[in-house]
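Suppose you are handed only these lines of text.
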Amino acid sequence: MTVTCVIGLQWGDEAKGKIVDLLTEAHDVVVRYQGGSNAGHTVVTGGKTYKLSLVPSGILRPGVQCVVTGGVVLNPASLLEEMGRLRSAGVEIGKNLMISRRAHVIFPWHMEEERVLDARVASDKSIGTTMRGIGPCYRDKVGRSNAIRLGDMYRPEFHDQVARIVEHKNLTLKALATNVDFKPLDAEAIFAEYSQYAAQLQPHVCDTTEYLLDAVESGQHVLFEGAQGALLDIDHGTFPYVTSSNSSGVGIPAGSGVPGKYLDKVIGVLKAYSTRVGGGPFPTELDNELGQTIRDRGNEYGTVTGRPRRCGWFDAVAARYAARLSGVDVLVISLLDVLSTVGDLKICVEYKLDGKRLDCFPSHVDDLKRVAPVYETLPGWDAEISDVRRYEDLPENARAYLSRISEVVGRPVEIVSVGADREQTLFADDAAAASYVPR
Ligand code: IMP
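From them, the structure of the protein bound to inosinic acid can be written out as follows.
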């Protein structure tokens, strides 16, 4: 296997960072190809905890080439802050970080646009974004006339481009800011600030599409690191309560320029239960004491915004859809330890709408809001499992729970994670373990 992909199969926060970190030693190149600093990955390695957002997790391993492609929307200030923080923690960042000159840049007007527009939306209709300007930047990318890519910042037209866009944004934002304050943006100040960022990032800026095509064509081991989760995919997720990029497996070719035929193995990461941050339907949500217990045991608070995550039972209907959509070969089940001691467990195996069984994941959000989950109840386990180090040493009920998930999602479980540390990783068998061995 030369090209491996790690995709979250729920609404993000599936603990992909840990799996990517485990895999990096077996890969030459690690790639971030969609999203932006709405993502937050926590990696615990060598007894240290690292919080990553835009920088690929591979940065923590010397010798691994990290690539941020043109499918990403990039806030230079947050990227530079993240790079600075990593450097202070002793992480080396030089030629091992490449950033595409095709990446679209997030400017202050994107954050302002998100704030001003969000204030006009009724709270029950709000998407509840991370307020990082992600949606407005992707909107400008698709709209084209007001978009600036990283490569544009090194061209003589950059100054006039900023001046023209700021004039346009000030006009529209002033008109739309009817219920919030709005201070007009200063084009010269933004130009000066972003010119500095451009200079600082310049050593990393290059054509990542050509680089990655060369890498896959020459048989290098490349790892694609998905951000968010498949159910937040702009085209195939729970629209409009989604993010603005293709966060399912379909996003890899578009975001990186690497054709789908090169993708050898897709690993789908699922929590042993479900979580969601922000608005949108969540059929298996536990808006009760049990949901709070899971939130506390799993420390389910957003890495980026600190918001409490909504928690619920494992939704096999949504997971099966997400796994098929992303071309998933094998599953990783994370945070299984969180479910210890909570009592009987439920898995949603079917949706009913107006009393009828649905045979597919609803395409309209209003239908998804109305579905009634059909549950199977499985016995839980009383013992804590975070010290378990072999799959076969898991309590019988935990193994039965995993088998049922595998059966209904239709994919084998390769790894089970029972804690944030590397050692808290259980491989289903020797063949599974072998694929994670450093080369
Ligand atoms: P945006 O990506 O900031 O536009 O937010 C759109 C939706 O995606 C909101 O519901 C966010 O809470 C959610 N979202 C974005 N990034 C993440 C993530 O990394 N984890 C979980 N949810 C996310």
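What can we learn from it? The CA atoms of residues 249 and 325 lie 7 Å apart. The mean pLDDT is 95.
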